Amino acid sequence: MDTYITVQNLSFARGDRIIYDNISLSVPRGKITAVMGPSGTGKTTLLRLIAAQLAPDEGAVMVNGEDIHALSRSGLYKARKKMGMLFQSGALFTDMSAAENVAFPMEEHTDLNSSQIHQIVLEKLHSVGLRGAANLMPSELSGGMARRVALARAIALDPELVMYDEPFTGQDPISKGVLVKLIRQLNDDAKVTSVLVSHDVEEALSIADHVCILAGGSVIAEGSVEEIRASEEPQVKQFLNGDPDGPVPFHYPEAAVDRGVVI
Amino acid sequence: MRSKRTELFVGGFIVLAVLGFTYLAVQVSGLAFSGKKDSYQVVARFDDIAGLSARAKVTIAGVAVGSVESISLDKELYMGLVTMNIDADVNNIPVDSSIAILTSGLLGEKYLGITIGAEDEVLVNESEIFDTQSALVLETLISQFLFNSDDSEE
Amino acid sequence: MKALGSIGAWFYDWLEAVGRAGIFIVQSLFRLPVRYKEAFSLLINQLYSVGVLSLVIVVVSGTFIGMVMALQGYSILVKFGSEDAVGQLLALSLLRELAPVVTALLFAGRAGSSLTAEIGLMKATEQLSSFEMMGVDPLRRVIAPRFIAGVICLPLLSVIFAATGILGGLVVSVGWLGVHEGAFWSLMQQSVYFDTDIVNGFIKALCFSIAVTWIAVYQGYECVPTAEGIGKATTRTVVVGSLSILALDFILTAAMFGDF
Asked: Which of A144, B50, B62, C24 has the smallest count of CB within 10 Å of its CB?
């Protein structure tokens, strides 16, 4: 398997709270990898570790063969130009219009002149179906539209890797459908490697090629969608089926507070 | 356009601040921007300069004709040595003129007043006014008054 | 012993925060690269939202404080028959003390709090992370223009405050209370010195502006990125900012005017 990202024996803790305890996983090149798990398992933290916004306590993250945490600041900024991230809230810059938001990474990192940039901006907005919204401000966009503009911005520099942080959360069914289609299309057309963090089981499984389930600070399952669906692991089954009781108990265990580990 | 309007307002703001600063400097502190006016220096020695300060006005007939440059102690004579700048165009002050330390109002600032003499020879740069009248110090005035009344009773 | 320990711990935390704030501002200002054309237009935008938008409150407060000072000063001075000195009183107290201090307090409330809230909100909505993900340093892009704009604006606002205050006082004392206008100006001009009073007042305002803006941008950047966290950070900006202004004012006054 041709891997783009390899996470090796990674440990990470926030204060006393252990988020990851010696996990390893890999993301295949040019495929969509879904990272799933219950809320609070630190899925977003994983994306921040891959983007080196956070540094691990132990272990390494190799992105395209480079240890991302060993890079200098300028090397890291160079590496990030090949990454796009779609934040949970969209994170559009509130003082710029949709078009200016999409143009921003190009203005920062390329030598294109403004008419060339404008051309690409319209192309990217067209690909997310929002060419007509180019001049709207973020406050005038609906949540789903804002996320699509943010997606257009994330792919503005034609990155090799796009990370999606909970793209489906808080979206109506139509927006969800649009996003699913866009993510799939982007992957098929441009052959980008995608990492998708989500707890929306159906949407995530419908587009993923490779799935990785996190719980309690470790990887409980990794494999193709079929392998995951066929898994007999009770914790995986409970998560996929959404059973209220199982290995993850309905009643919050009283001892868990003392252990300092929150599942 | 949004940014043009912003620039306009910021420009207005900065101009306003500069105007305010100029106003404070010229009108409030009386700073003269026309550079140093041509002037010549004159000195005078006083027994008591009580409360006179640098930059105080020098007047003739109540009209300001210069200002006090510096005040120091004449160590040999134990007198206050006042150096003042007189405007160059006021070049006809007789050498036997007298100079007094005056007060504007009861609590006002001290200033210098020149009373014109009769000689034909006039003051030039670095000449001295010998006829000086010291500041009226209230305590001295009161004690003089008391002693005088004692004298009259005797 | 336990109390001593907690004071020690508090001091340790405080020292660490000061160090962090110092590194933070140095990185914002001196980390390269800078693209001057873009930096200039960012600065203009911030000068607008920090300076121009604070102008109204400064002008209105300046005018009223000048008017009140003239009324109060007149009612006392008239007992000594020295009502002409009201201009002197007005100018000296405004230039040396009221203009820098009151403007800085207003600035902490108006511009400081909005800087903190704005930066905090950018943090909460992941805009700061977003800059970082695009390989753009948020310190350079977001913090530096706001800090520089704040430092520039407060001294200018303080000058405008003093000027409008004196004009307000002039209107009340000369126009209303009947003080002689010539005496008003001449007594003022005799007692106000450009180098000690005006320049020192300006330096005071500059020191306050560095302190307040620094606190505001640091609190915004370091806040807990939730609605509650932003609210707390905004309050802290106003409280810590105002106290720093008053403490700094004492130190500066002692240094500038202390040797009478």
From this structure: B62
Looking at the domain assignment, is residue B30 inside a domain?
yes
* Structural domain containing residue B6: 1-35
Instruction: Give the nearest partner residue to B16 out of C160, C166, C197, using CB atoms.
Output: C160
**Which among C52, C191, C192 has CB closest to B10?**
C52
**Which two tokens mark C91?**
């100018």
For the CA atoms of chain B, what is the radius of gyration?
Answer: 23
CA distance A82 to chain C (A): 9
Cβ–Cβ gap C194/B109 under 8 Å: no
Chain C residues in contact with B30 by the CB 8 A cut-off are 188-190, 192
Please name which of A210, A141, A192, A199 lies closest in space to residue A167, comparing C-alpha atoms.
A199
Domains contained in chain B, number: 2
Distance from the B10 Cα atom to the nearest Cα atom in chain C, whole angstroms: 6
Is B81 in the same domain as B111? yes
> How close is the nearest chain C Cα to the Cα of B29, in Å?
5
By the 8 A CB rule, do A33 and A209 touch? yes
**Residue B154 forms part of a structural domain:** no
Assess whether B124 and B56 both reside in one domain: yes
Go through A87-110 and write b for each residue having 16 or more CB atoms within 10 A of its CB, e for each that does not: bbbbbbbeeebbbbbbbbbbebbe
Residues with Cβ within 8 Å of residue B66, at least 6 apart in sequence: B39, B57, B58, B84, B85, B86, B87, B90
Give me the interface pTM, i.e. the ipTM: 0.79
Q: Which residues pair with B44 in a beta bridge?
A: B82, B129
**Residue of C41, C49, C52 to mutate when probing chain B, most B C-beta within 10 A:** C52
Shared-domain flag, residues B57 and B121: yes
Q: Mark whether B66 and B26 lie in a shared domain.
A: no
pLDDT tens, N- to C-terminus, chain C (260 residues): 778 888 888 888 888 888 888 888 888 888 766 677 778 888 888 999 899 999 999 999 999 999 999 999 999 988 887 788 888 889 999 999 999 999 999 999 999 999 999 999 999 988 888 888 888 888 888 898 999 999 999 999 999 999 999 999 999 998 898 888 888 887 888 788 887 888 999 999 999 999 999 999 999 999 998 899 999 999 999 999 999 999 999 999 988 876 65
Restricting to A residues 83-122, those with a Cβ less than 8 Å away from any Cβ of C are 83-85, 87-95, 104-105, 108-109
Note whether B31 and B44 are same-domain residues: no
B81 and B13 belong to one structural domain:
no
C-alpha distance from C11 to closest chain B C-alpha (Å): 41
CA-closest candidate to residue C45, choices C145, C122, C157, C123: C145
Assess C52–B contact: CB distance below 8 Å, yes or no. yes
Closest CA to C216 of C148, C162, C131, C124: C148
Strand order in the sheet with A66-67: A17-28, A3-14, A58-63, A66-67
Residues B11 and B56 in one domain: no
Whether the CB of B11 is below 8 Å from some CB of chain C: the reply is no
**Pair B71, B126 in one domain:** yes
Taking only the tens place, the pLDDT of each residue in A152-192 is 888 888 888 889 888 888 778 888 888 888 888 888 887 88
Structural domain contains residue B150: no
Contacts of B11 in chain C (CB under 8 A): none
Distance from CA of C112 to the nearest CA of A (A): 19
**pTM to 2 decimal places:** 0.79
- B4 within a domain of the structure (yes/no): yes
Determine whether the interchain pair C193/B24 forms a contact, defined as Cβ–Cβ distance below 8 Å. no
- Write out chain C residues lying below 8 Å of B57, CB-based: 190
